[in-house]
Amino acid sequence: MKDILEIRKYLHQHPEIGFDTFNTANYIYDILVELGYETEYALDKRAVIAYLDLNKKKTIALRSDMDALKIKEETGLDFASTNGCMHACGHDVHMSILLLAAKLIKENIKYLKYNVILLFQPAEEGPLPGGAFYLKEHELLKKADAFFSYHVSPKLYVGQMGIKENEACAAPDLWELELTGVGCHASTPENGRNPILAGSEIALKLEEFYQEFKKKENVVISTTYFNSGVSMNIIKDKAYLKGTARSFTDQNRHYLHTKMEDIIADVCKKYGINYKFDFHYAYPPLHNDIKLANKMFKAASTILGSENCLKLDKPELIGEDFAYYKEIAPICLTWIGARERGANYYDLHNSHFVASSKTIYLGADILLNLLKGAA
């Protein structure tokens, strides 16, 4: 196997998005075969699954996402991507951790307490319904008794990890709104029905509702897109809004859907505007299994020190399709620190985001410790 830093550089420099992860899958497949794993493609060669059967009673599945984002990289790295896409969510590091772990697993095979599944999955960033939605039907994954996954975090420094027990990540539901009024000349707005006015009021009322509702529930509603018009002297008949509505229970997901549509209907009636509202239910909320979280804490504490293993007070409002694997077995998502001390803070999905390579070694050591039964 090549040096892990060279692997990381290659993966970072050649990002692929969504389900178009053929090159990445092929690259990973060859490494796993070289390491001697029973390896197969999935999802028409977009995903890779490796299996190590040691005749143990239980099987642990370790998952890495593979896809990148449609973001032009501005990190200044000598191995920066140049194809207009970027691993701005750190999936290059996730893959590198799991590949280094694969090497360490083979080198320490006599110490392992579990059978192992290594899962490399596309389309965590979308499109909906996400790669995990399809992979959860794979027969090999049904052998798993537990699923573990990392996500790098710039909120944590290298050498730290954090887990939120139970509620860990929100359901990242999406919404789209099309408003249809009557177009007219901008000098005679009384002759038309301006959808921009209705859209503006809808955006403000959704924000008011969100600000009030979040006082008692952990939710978010964001309007992220508003488009209408082609010229300064034309009132067009159409306006379009998009956004996200995130929460942690099915009850709140449905409540947000219903309440948002009520607000939209009331405003549209006021302005004489027709509307088409689509609420797209995305990934389920991610709930960590407490027993698995404790296993990960114990496995990590001997590597990082217990003082650097943090039980997080608040869940993240980002979404993670890793939540789908809970339909097979208990799951645990761990946040692992990726920011060097003294480095500037850049959030996930930022064109300047870089995860430290040091995280790769620590993450792999923790996974090996987990499989040795250190927990």
Sequence-ordered SSE layout with sheet pairings:
Elements (H helix, E strand, L loop, with lengths): L3 H10 L8 H13 L3 E5 L4 E6 L6 E7 L25 H17 L7 E7 L9 H5 L10 E12 L3 E3 L2 E4 L1 E10 L3 E2 L9 H19 L6 E8 L6 E2 L2 E10 L2 H22 L2 E7 L5 E3 L1 H15 L4 E3 L19 E9 L18 H14 L4
Parallel strand pairs: 3-4, 3-5, 5-16, 6-15
Antiparallel strand pairs: 1-2, 2-4, 6-16, 7-14, 8-12, 8-13, 9-11, 10-12
Helix pairs in contact: 1-3, 3-8, 5-6, 7-8
How would you characterize this protein structure?
- This protein has helices spanning 4-13, 22-34, 91-107, 131-135, 195-213, 250-271, 290-304, 358-371; strands at residues 38-42, 47-52, 59-65, 115-121, 146-157, 161-163, 166-169, 171-180, 184-185, 220-227, 234-235, 238-247, 274-280, 286-288, 309-311, 331-339.
- The protein is of the alpha/beta class.
- It folds into 2 domains: 4-170 and 285-371, 3-Layer(aba) Sandwich (Aminopeptidase); 171-280, Alpha-Beta Plaits (2-Layer Sandwich).
- The radius of gyration is 23 Å and the shape is elongated.
- The model has no long low-confidence stretch (mean pLDDT 97).
